[in-house]
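Hi Y.,

Following your request, here is the sequence exactly as I used it, all 113 residues.
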Amino acid sequence: MKDTIGYCGLDCEKCDAYIATIHDDHALREKTAKLWAELNNAPITPEDINCEGCRMNGVKTVFCSNLCGIRQCAWKKGVVTCGDCPDLETCSTVAAIISNNPEALERLRNERE
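Below is the corresponding structure, written out as tokens. Let me know if you'd prefer a different format.
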């Protein structure tokens, strides 16, 4: 599996924070910060929008580095992604992602094969 696939199966290369970081796109950082601040009712600034992927070494957004329960669970269990976890199909931690994103679930299932 590509290193830019998150623990949850989402493709980090499609994330606006990742894109803004890789392309040093300040306008996209501003747009993303505004949207994420509204969605999360939290003070998110363009300076917070820096991420090189949740499974990669390097900078991450505050959410990805400290708040993502999926990432924390994967670390505790020592799995590369949730696809390596026997509880994938019944897990309440990753459920919101995989129930709303069939591509993420398919990536994780394919990892098992």
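The two ends are 11 Å apart (CA to CA).

Thanks again,
Q.
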